[in-house]
């Protein structure tokens, strides 16, 4: 534990964390990591120590506040932080839950008792209407979707009436809500190889695409894409990939209308070659492709504000497991891999 906190640093007593899909990729060996490290970046906790607050944003915080923080720390001065307005790609980037003990300080990941929040990290208080379990994934999954679907990225006169979401995990379900509430999309179709997750999506305003073929365990291997084509004369206006499965992308491009938007969020692992997809198909569609990795500080603010406004309208409590103790992390990862829950929660107190 630090003896003294530098200006704008915070010492947070971690309360709960959730297991993100990227952590699951690391645990499975699909994604490389510098080890040893403390994993975990989706989390929240209570401020128990503060360095001198010199930033206006820090001055609004106090000891005892329930908070969450951006998954990265930035320098404020480099080109990505200033001219490019993409601070999550800062030249001096530090990422919580992704940094080895050699380069960090041992208090960098959420699967631990405490986190030392650095001075360039965006921190936000959590309103009372959001429980600890729902607050934990705010700083990753929810904020990433607000970055992916930031209305400033799309021309004002863009036609949005139909959408296809690839993947019915937490990213996908939250995408459905944002599309319906902020984009006023009337029909949000969704695909997921797990039929139980597809059915869960109906509670979040989505229309599951029926299957044409399943395997021996009941997982969907082929979707009835004509189901969408019959209801959209020209194809869907926007496709959002959240599933992390490159095999889903060609069908998504095929179902996109001319001039539509394809947003890629979930393919954050090396095994993401798009296989049969050709440049011709993208050009012929006059498609706009958006690749989104992480988010900016404003998207964390937006995710908390938006969730606060809809938290009573959807059964979010059905998405996050009951907390497991930190001592049961292997069990927690196994449960996350089973896809029984959109997020598995870990109790850190």
UniProtKB/TrEMBL annotation:
Q: Name one GO cellular component term.
A: cytoplasm
Question: What keywords are annotated for this sequence in UniProt?
Answer: Metal-binding, NAD, Oxidoreductase, Zinc
| Cofactor annotation | Zn(2+)
Top enzyme class of this protein? Answer: oxidoreductase
Documented EC number(s):
1.1.1.1
Where would I find the Alcohol dehydrogenase-like C-terminal domain in this sequence? 171-308
- For whether the record's keyword set contains Nucleus, the answer is no
Boundaries of every Alcohol dehydrogenase-like N-terminal domain copy: 7-128
NAD as a keyword? yes
Query: From the Swiss-Prot or TrEMBL record, what is one GO molecular function term?
Result: alcohol dehydrogenase (NAD+) activity
**What InterPro entries does the annotation carry?**
ADH-like_C, ADH-like_N, GroES-like_sf, NAD(P)-bd_dom_sf
PANTHER family per record = ALCOHOL DEHYDROGENASE 1-RELATED
Family as reported in the entry's similarity comment = Belongs to the zinc-containing alcohol dehydrogenase family.
**Name of the molecule in the record:** alcohol dehydrogenase
**What organism does this protein naturally occur in?**
Arcella intermedia
């Amino acid at each position: 534990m630090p003896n003294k906190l530098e200006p704008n640093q915070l010492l947070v007593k971690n309360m709960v964390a959730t297991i993100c899909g990227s952590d699951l990729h690391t645990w499975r060996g699909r994604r490389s990591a510098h080890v040893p490290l403390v994993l975990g970046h989706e989390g929240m906790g209570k401020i128990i120590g503060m360095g001198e607050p010199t930033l206006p944003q820090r001055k609004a915080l106090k000891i005892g506040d329930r908070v969450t923080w951006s998954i990265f720390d930035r320098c404020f001065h480099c080109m990505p932080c200033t001219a490019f307005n993409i601070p999550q790609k800062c030249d001096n980037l530090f990422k919580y839950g992704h940094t080895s003990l050699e380069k960090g300080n041992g208090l960098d990941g959420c699967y631990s008792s405490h986190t030392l929040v650095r001075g360039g990290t965006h921190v936000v208080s959590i309103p009372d209407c959001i429980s600890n379990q729902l607050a934990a994934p705010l700083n990753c999954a929810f904020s990433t979707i607000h970055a992916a679907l930031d209305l400033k990225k799309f021309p004002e006169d863009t036609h949005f009436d139909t959408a296809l979401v690839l993947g019915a995990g937490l990213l996908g379900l939250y995408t459905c809500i944002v599309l319906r509430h902020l984009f006023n999309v009337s029909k949000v179709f969704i695909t997921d190889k797990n039929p139980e997750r597809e059915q869960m999506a109906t509670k979040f305003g989505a229309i599951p695409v029926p299957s044409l073929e399943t395997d021996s365990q009941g997982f969907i291997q082929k979707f009835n894409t004509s189901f969408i084509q019959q209801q959209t004369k020209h194809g869907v206006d926007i496709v959002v990939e959240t599933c992390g499965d490159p095999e889903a992308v060609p069908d998504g491009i095929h179902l996109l209308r001319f001039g539509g938007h394809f947003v890629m969020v979930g393919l954050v692992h090396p095994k993401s070659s798009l296989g049969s997809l050709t440049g011709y198909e993208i050009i012929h569609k006059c498609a706009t492709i958006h690749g989104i990795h992480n988010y900016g500080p404003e998207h964390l603010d937006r995710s908390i504000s938006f969730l606060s406004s809809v938290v009573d309208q959807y059964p979010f409590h059905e998405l996050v497991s009951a907390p497991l103790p930190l001592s049961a992390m292997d069990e927690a990862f196994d449960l996350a891999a089973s896809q029984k829950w959109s997020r598995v929660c870990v109790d850190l107190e």
